[in-house]
Amino acid sequence: MTGRILIVDGVPTNRIVLRVRLSSAYYEVLQAGSGADALLSVRLQRPDLIIAAADLPDMTGEVLCQQIRALQVAPDTPVILIHPAPDRLQRMRALAAGADDILSRPVDELVLLARLRSLLRARHAEDELRLRDDTRRALGLAEPPAELHCPARVAVVPVQADVSVKAVVSTLRARLPDRFEICSPDEALRLAGGAPEVFVIVDTGSVAGAGLSLLTQLRASPPYRQSAIVYVTRAECRHEAASALDLGANDLLADGFDAEELILRLPKQIARKRTADRLRSNMRDGLRAAVTDPLTGLYNRRYVLPHLTRVADRAIEKARSYALLLLDLDHFKTINDAHGHAVGDAVLVEAARRMSANLRPSDLVARIGGEEFLVVMPDTSENTALLAAERLRSVISKTPFTVPGLPEGGRQVTASIGVALPRRTRAEPPEILLDRADRALYVAKNSGRNQVALAGGDCALLAADPVGPPPRAAAAGP
């Protein structure tokens, strides 16, 4: 099934006819004969969309819309009202009550199904983003967002020269707080200052469907892909209206460029666009939080290990070498014991900053343990890796750390580093190389700390010191 739809109508024949149409389009159909039954069904069965008659036995369609919008379980459920012969005033009342659209009876099946596909596509996309956002909140990765109310940017695009929009845009500017600009189709695809939150494509001229090409281009253009699009057409252009919805229009004005109707529809599209943007941003933040160390801002073990595999595969493909540097801060426990964990955290942050500032853009440094860091260096020879390791050792040990909480003059911090490169004689999995770097790190630790050791047949302590003689650690320890 492509969606669960609730039909609300006091006339059984109307419900049956509509149910047959929707079932043949593979929708799951629920039915209710009154507004009260509909509200109960919404609470218990959570439909994806509601189609309701405007004249129910116990309430009007507008009242049903208002009560649905007040339900905590379904404030955003799309609602389409069906009216025997809606006039402009009835359409405005329905939209003001919270309806997403109002269609006349007998229902045009072509337009109805296109409208259902459009509304459900947007609903399912938002539900997926909300699900990920709820998961992120459950993990403690997000706080409830603050509501921001700032003017939106709306681009009004007439696609035929015989269409005048200035009078309508003047009304919109007077009645809404948003910023409106009129532009040609060519200008719409090259707007400066970022993407508008909403495009209004006005296609009410003599050539039906003239704006469909622009709609397709906007949906295919990365800068504008997430913008909301409202498509304006004429009542007789039913095929073009259905095509606009299927091509990605978020909303449709099927009876011309009406300022009053647009005043009711635009705020909903702006709100939905901003909600989707916020949810996408939260999802990206959640992904970053999952692979980033929150203290230092470096990547964590979850990210660096798959990255290491990709670097290894590329090295084999390009017949190039790469290197791993495993770095551990010496006697770090004594810093925590003497000055507290807050000072220890500040030392870790400063060490991460010094390392990041002294590596190539292509190198990746990650925090993989308490005071342990891993550096992945693609396209790196043995000599380059050893020079980089010695440079990192030096920038950490040469200048005392002067973070808050340490005595005046700071405290010297040193690091031991194990270096490993894949053997040329045989293919070596990244996890084996990581193990060799770990054993080289232990050689550096056991040789007095503040040292660089290279993993070979037997791990060898680096004898040369291009930067200067390394100061020895003051005391041995774990």
UniProtKB/TrEMBL annotation:
Swiss-Prot/TrEMBL catalytic activity: 2 GTP = 3',3'-c-di-GMP + 2 diphosphate
Uppermost EC category: transferase
GO biological process terms on file: phosphorelay signal transduction system
Domain of life: Bacteria
InterPro entries, per the entry: CheY-like_superfamily (IPR011006), Diguanylate_Cyclase (IPR050469), GGDEF_dom (IPR000160), Nucleotide_cyclase (IPR029787), Rev_trsase/Diguanyl_cyclase (IPR043128), Sig_transdc_resp-reg_receiver (IPR001789)
Enzyme Commission numbers on file: 2.7.7.65
One protein family per Pfam: Response_reg
Gene3D superfamilies: 3.30.70.270, 3.40.50.2300
Every GGDEF domain range: 320-457
Name of this chain's protein: diguanylate cyclase
SMART domains for this protein: GGDEF (SM00267), REC (SM00448)
